Amino acid sequence: MYTRNEKVTPVLIEEEMKNSYVDYSMSVIVGRALPDARDGLKPCHRRVLFAMRELGLEHNRAYKKSARVVGEVLGKYHPHGDSAVYDTMVRMVQDFSLRYPLVDGQGNFGSVDGDNAAAMRYTEVRLMAIAEELLADIDKNTVNFKANFDETLEEPTVLPGKLPNLLVNGSSGIAVGMATNIPPHNLCEIVDGLKILIDDPDATVKDLMKVVKGPDFPTGGQICGTDTIKSMYETGRGHIKMRAKAGIEPTKSGKEFIIVTEIPFNVNKSSLIERIADLVNNKEITGISDIRDESDKDGMRIVIELKRGEIAKVVLNQLYKHTQMQETFGAIMLALDKGRPKVMNLKEMMICYINHRKEVIVRRTKFELDKAEKRAHILEGFKIAIANINEVVKIIRSAKDRLVAKEKLTSKFKLSAVQAEAILELRLYQLTGLEIEKIEAEYLELIKRISYLKSILASEKKVLALIKEELEDLRKRFGDERRTDIVPDEKELRIEDLIANEGCLITISHTGYIKRTPVSLYRQQRRGGKGVSGMETKEEDYVEHLFTASTHDYILFFTEDGSAYWLKVYEIPQGGRATKGKAIINLLNIASDKKLAAMICVKEFDDTRRIFYATKKGVVKKTRLSQFSNPRKGGIIAINIDKGDELIGVKLTSGSDDLLLATKEGMSIRFPEAQVKDQGRATRGVKGITLDKKDEVVSLDIVEKDATLLVVTENGYGKRTEFEEYRIQKRGGKGIITMKTTDKTGLVIGVNRVVDADEIMMISAKGKMVRTSMKGIRIIGRNTQGVRLINLDKDDRLVAVTRVISEDENGAGEADDSTQEAAATKA
């Protein structure tokens, strides 16, 4: 049913939705979320400042309750929620939110710890002196006004903005389909930049950057790198890397403290400390023993106490990486230019300010000129009246009323209505000689003032000079030192940068204890020596794995069930010869029921090399090394192992090597690597050797043309044999004899490729070690028993043998490719 005279227009719902959403979007963009490029304020901020001025809350007046100001803003200009207005005012008070706070607050206005401000009934406010520069000359027709929401009052559409607020205080806001995030700057630098642009309108962003070094955040801190700053200033967008300012202090006890005195902009201090504590509790950062917040009224001070022996720079870099001690400020320099949103570069923002100030000064000058001319006009009437004072008095006295007197004065002395009215308002004391002189002096001063004001309007140069004068005045009164340091963007400091790259011996016991020891701790001994103690072990424990590596290498750990885990060599605790080491389960995320089978050392995970596996039951497999380039804490499947089988050896190969498998009963087989195809990680492999019932594979090694094969047995016997004696066979055969095993020699426990210059390290179940040169072991045939290499106690036996490098080999004891493989085997 339609009512009378009602008109109904059919509209498509899609069109109505689209048009309504566009209207809503523009309302949010223009009327709420984005700042004006001229005064750098959003409507709510502008209304708060204007209302405070109307209430007379200048910086040198008494404070008034915040609730009074909020009520004024709500009732007259901003018909929204009181919390929105109060939150806006609170932020303008906080010296950690604004580089130059605009409101002077008394009471609790929150803290950098994230504490909320007290209720508005408890706090008091007034304008800061610098905020008054935004409002200066607003009563001189410098800006346009518009009707408020109920059209009973008027409010400014923009403030005169003598302070370049958009750049010095920045702004942030999320509109519909767009957002702004403009960083704050140092007032002195912005003033210098504006002066450069005023003097040379063709100045480039590069020219401006000579004085505008970069953002200057209220909380200080550091900005890393200048390239991102340059990008932001040239394009209006950029990602600024902010860091906390931290120093390292040594203590008498030998520990070091990291002292944080400044944090990045918009970072909550309490949340930052909680995050560091969580990282320590979750053992993601292990070098911290205590965290204390010692901040007080004199400034911020977060004390991070390190464990003894920890490297402070490395821990600091971990904090930068995992916490808000390093943050990114995503700059989007978006503001309203003539009512339209626009992403601007540094120069364009400065031009917006200069153009606005030019308009303000011209309008102010016209207002002052008009006022001066009106006053001069009145003074000219006074001069006429004073010159004819007797006649003027006579006319006034004889007139019937004020209107008649005004008409007679106007006609008699050719005065204007305004002049005649002013004469009628004159008081008798103004006709004294002294007052007459004052009128003359005021008139002469006004004539000069009018001439000066006209000269300003006639010359843009003078307008620009005035802008420069006012900016310099702002600089003198409110300028301060830069708070945020700009430092080079250094690469992330890795622990490798602080640890010497040197050879070391990795030792792992049967019960899972690991340590690294410098190779130099073991002196060379002759064949048959008694050795030195290499690791403290319990009676039921013995050393099971042993190999050499460089401190900067990765170690890939392979368990008997075919899983792989990662660790950096330097992460293994260093110990002396006789120390026990640390439980591997504390270093790797390995289940307690898993046992390590082999390890390899890797410098980098390239696609040219392969990882070759061998199991106890003679299964072999190879996989590209690059498939292990992404470490995972929980490990990965490297090879699928059959039930009852286990992994015994892993080697790094070139893809075209010959491999040799050796068994505990003295058999061996040599075959080309090409006979084994590349497979993925979670696969089983193929047969490498056919074994007798009681036999099993104990060693896997790579054939090297100029090397010999060292075979060592559990009773301390060993020999070297030329590789030429091992003919190439087809994979999967029974192989040939590599050593004649007897009750005297015992079973084979290890096979290594060696050259004369090499040394080997032998280790017994009781932890005894002997390091000896290969020159002392003669080369003999395959089917022989060998010679005694180490004297063992009756109840002791050899469990492992590995090739060792000397300290002066390959630089500072760094292992070459041949040593970056786990030659360790088990009995």
Q: Going across the major beta sheet, what is the strand order?
A: 14-9-8-17
CATH superfamily name of the largest domain?
Answer: DNA gyrase/topoisomerase IV, subunit A, C-terminal
Helix/strand structural class:
alpha+beta
Q: What is the β-strand count?
A: 41
Q: Give average pLDDT, whole number.
A: 86
- Count of folded domains: 4
Strand content: 15-25%
Main pleated sheet:
4 strands, mixed
State the end-to-end CA separation: 99 Å
- What is the class of the largest domain in the CATH system? Mainly Beta
Q: List unreliable stretches of 5+ residues.
A: 805-827
Briefly say what this structure is.
The protein is of the alpha+beta class and about 850 residues long. The chain is built from 17 helices and 41 strands.
Q: How would you portray this structure in words?
A:
The chain has 827 residues and is an alpha+beta fold. It has four domains: 13-182, Topoisomerase II, domain 5 (Alpha-Beta Complex), CATH 3.90.199; 245-324, 2-Layer Sandwich (Gyrase A, domain 2); 356-478, Topoisomerase, domain 3, CATH 1.10.268.10; 499-819, DNA gyrase/topoisomerase IV, subunit A, C-terminal (Neuraminidase), CATH 2.120.10.90. The protein is built from 17 helices and 41 strands. Helix 12 (346-387) packs across helix 15 (417-424). The longest helix is centred in the middle third of the chain and has 42 residues, at 346-387. The chain is elongated, with a radius of gyration of 44 Å.
